What does this fold into?
Amino acid sequence: MKKHIICFLGIVLFGSFILSAQESNSRQQEQLSASAVITIEGMACQEGCADAISANLKKVPGVTSVQVSFATGLANIDFNKNEVSMDDLKAVITNTKVKDYIYTIKEVELTEDN
It folds into this structure.
């Protein structure tokens, strides 16, 4: 009977250790998330320019959400800072090619979700 109790306690302790580690990892991932609003100049339309930039940003590992609007000239991007940097995101935008359009970054507003 003592062996069963010891075994049961071991399983309970091991299970609580695993749950604690998962919660800690989840908190770390949350701390690494960020949102950026990037003002883009040079877009000529939604269907070509804004949608092409959006499609390229969605391919980047670590990007969790993207909305690019020609009407406002803004890109709203949610991403994991551990996987992708702001410089990487800017490079994707400025390196997107649609015809001869050149996209430039006018302003960046970064919000870290802690």
User: Anything to note?
Assistant: The longest strand covers residues 33-41.
